[in-house]
Design goal:
- By secondary structure, the protein is an alpha+beta fold.
- The longest helix is centred in the C-terminal third of the chain and has 18 residues.
- 45% of the residues lie in helices and 31% in strands.
Length: 78
């Protein structure tokens, strides 16, 4: 998984296999309940091309994403 900033938020790259796509879609389904201020975009093409998950929103949403990301990275020791 690769992470980078994108316009309005963050963008993650994942392997494009069917199982990963299923897991990402399941995660989006759960997260959108608690984070209605975010827009979730999943981009997937045919085959096993890399899949993109884009999380976007207002300036406050971007700050939330970066704060959450930092907390999770600190928690696992990176």
């Amino acid at each position: 998984m690769a992470l980078r900033k994108s316009n309005g938020g963050l963008q993650y790259s994942f392997p494009g296999d069917s199982e990963t796509l299923r897991l990402v879609n399941r995660w989006v389904g759960l997260e959108r309940r608690c984070c209605p201020f975010l827009t979730f975009t999943v981009i997937s093409t045919g085959g096993n091309e890399q899949m993109i998950l884009r999380l976007t929103g207002s300036e406050e949403a971007k700050a939330f994403l970066l704060r959450e990301l930092r907390m999770n990275i600190d928690r696992i020791g990176y």
